[in-house]
Amino acid sequence: MTTTEPRIMPMGMAINEAMDVAMGLDEKVFLLGEDIAEPSGGVYKITKGLSTKYGTDRVRKTPISEAAIIGAAVGAAIAGYKPVAEIMIMDFIGVCLDQITNHAAKIRYMSGGQTTVPMVIRTSAGAGRGFGAQHSELLEAFAVHSPGMKVAIPSNPADAKGLLISSIFDADPVLFVEPMLMYWDPTYAGEVPAGDYRVPLGKANTVVEGKDVSLISYGRQVHTCKKAAEELAAEGISAEVIDLRSIVPYDEAAVMASVTKTKRAVVVHEAVTRCGFGAELSSRIHEELFGTLAAPVQRVGGKNIPIPYASNLEKAFLPQVADVVAAVKRTNK
Amino acid sequence: MATTNRPDAPDRDALLRMFEIQQKIKTADERFRAMLTSGQVQLIYYSPRGQECISAGYAVHLRPDDYVVTIYRGLHDHIAKGVPMRELWAEFLGRGTGTCKGKGGPMHVTHPKSGLMVTTGIVGAGIPIANGFGLASKLSGTDQVTVVNFGDGASNIGAFHEGLNMAAVWKLPVIFVCQNNLYGEHTPMAMSTGVEYISERAASYGMPGVTVNGNDPVAMWKVAGEAIERARAGEGPTLIEARTYRFWGHLMGDAMEYMPKEERKAAMAADPLPAFRAWLLDNGHANEAQLAEIEDQIKALVDDAVDFAMNSPEPSMDELYTDVYEEIIK
Ligand SMILES: Cc1ncc(C[n+]2csc(CCOP(=O)(O)OP(=O)(O)O)c2C)c(N)n1
Ligand SMILES: [Mg+2]
Question: How far is CA A304 from CA A184, A276, B94, in A?
């Protein structure tokens, strides 16, 4: 018997593999976006090699025209294709928001189900790179607030692959948010199953089991929660870390089961705190478990400011491990 | 540049001011790149090297109260419009003494005192905003003009088309300067743009469009001067397509594998600034000692700005919540 090496890879490579697998499985899948074809293979190299393998008909480089990119994906999706559109950086979503909220999201409903929009919008996001206010934001709350859109945000390479393949073959439009800092950083690399590996949307992952408090997060901030859980463990507090993986749909059953057990919850995300997904989650927990909770649900998120350029201010914008630990302490008073 | 004298050239004063602006841009750019390569500083840097004639060519026609809007690749426009070197460097390095207290960074340099009104990181987004400046000048009856800079790639985004049409319909005093460096990020213009000359697009909005060699300071000066004069006289906007080249790719660290090596080599060999310098000397517009003195002064200016920025503190943490609104709302 031969033992195979574990397939350890960074998230960027796992995302590339997901698109490769999906295009191999179904010729209706095609990619479009700025600079995604060879020789550059995307400015972050996420689509490297794919235009060589599948041709530039299916890996289409576009002009810098976000509204036209998403519009073309919407139309092609209605006509039976499965487009995967790339918006290079999430802040640029502003340029094509109409195509997303008024069209991709609403068309199934407005047509009484006659026309559907099975497409994916892949986009990279996140602060911590000194890119300033217009290249660093997490804007998933917009999509969450647009019924019709699904939203997934992976926290590790295996989930990135599994969630993306599921999103591509989902019957509805999915905004797929890729934490840019995790693309090629080897500290975030992980084992990724080969082939057609899928992780369903709406199924949370309990990353750390615990009994005293539930830390609920998604994307890169899952790692902030994991570190916080380690610090708390040293102080004798047992924190459970739940990675939602997708926030529309989200695994409400898993959240409620965990908080029923721990009676305390802290929700953590990188997007600004005000009206972020954490606000929704906190409300739902209060609505369902008010009598069970030992303390009000706490939120930790980005500060309610545009993202600053100077590195000290940018760091202060981002949720820190210490912020999560402090929030847990607030539930323990 | 041809070595012969040119009857269409501006006077000596304007020529030397253009030379000075270009030399400032080149000196600042070289220093940034040196500090980046040596690891002294870390930042995302979009070098404007190769494009400095364009900024110098329009800037010498502008008054301090005229407006300029530019993009992330904006250092040349910032310097040309007269943003002070010290504050500019400090902003690039994220210091509290920067033009924007370190909060905006290089992609968002703003210095209204110099008329540098907006620097945007969103491709094309400055164009409609420039119309707003033009409208304000028109409504208040001043003869200020607005120059808005953007790339070839930006001419494919909706904001460009909406903005040009509105400027033409409202006869706004706005000059649209498309700095066509032949690439948008990693994509050659021909692969993303349906016309050979971006200036052709002006016709569909009913405004004059002109393509100029953006590496020829005299030609650039002339075309910009005419457009600015028309705008000041209330005769409406112009689209200028200034053809040029980016020497260092999209941003520092770009592997440039999508740019033919020979093409880049040829562009760098035809570096417009040394050519302009030689032309100034050959045609008696300046002597060696004069130009060397300008160069020395600029070197000292940049040395001083680097010292100032490197010795400036980070922004105070008290600044985290200021400037979001007029009052603090958390
Ligand atoms: C709306 C939007 N889409 C994409 C980007 C990413 N991006 C930054 S610069 C750039 C290329 C722009 O090319 P061009 O307009 O020719 O200007 P240049 O960089 O060549 O000066 C792209 C695609 C962006 N900043 N904004
Ligand atoms: Mg360009």
Answer: 29, 10, 20
